[in-house]
Amino acid sequence: MAVTVTAGIAAAWRAGHRKVKGCVVAFVTIVLVRFYGGMLLEWNNMGWRTTPRNLMDGIWIVVLIMAIFQTMVALTKDQHPWAGLTLGCGWLLILVVLLGAAIRFHFFTWTDRVIEQRETYVVVEKEHSPGSIGGRRYYLYVNGLVHGRSID
After folding, report:
1. How far apart are CA 29 and CA 24, in angstroms?
2. Ranges of each domain in the chain
């Protein structure tokens, strides 16, 4: 299913559809910032705070759905041979992505807040997942986008 949609995106890319290209570039950019940026932050004993992390996750999910939808529209408009298969697999993949996003944001979400402790600011992350409801992690405060090293 994902391979068919990926092949459809590649076909629409080669056909020069600007909306598909824009969605793909936006998707790749957001994913690189979210995951490779997180890796670079980890090397410096930092990490994304929960709000930027959740926003980036939400944005790349929306952009992925837009890319799939724009591919289906482009291939249908061009009457591409893969249009029917991409259309069916595309809608199914959109449903899978939406279901996965709903599960991720409902069950596996972190929230954080900043508290003052011993004359320093500390970021307290609270986990909302079925396995460890109420679990907390403590980090040094850096700014609104990233937190410092763990102080557990």
Report:
1. 8
2. 2-107, 110-150
**C-alpha dihedral (48, 104, 128, 53), degrees to nearest 10:** 10
The answer to whether 124 and 152 are in contact (CB under 8 A) is no
Q: Give the C-alpha distances (Å, rounded to integers) separating 80 from 15, 22, 103, 107.
A: 10, 20, 34, 40
Q: Cβ–Cβ contacts within 10 Å for residue 81, how many? A: 10
Per-residue pLDDT tens over the stretch 33-69: 999 998 999 999 999 998 898 889 889 889 988 888 8
Instruction: State how far the Cα of 40 lies from the Cα of 47, in Å rounded to an integer.
Output: 9
Residue 90, Cβ density class (10 Å: 0-12 exposed, 13-18 middle, ≥19 buried): buried
Q: Which residues contact 12 (CB under 8 A, 6 or more apart)?
A: 20, 70, 71, 74, 75, 80
Give the 3-state secondary structure of residue 44.
coil
pTM: 0.77
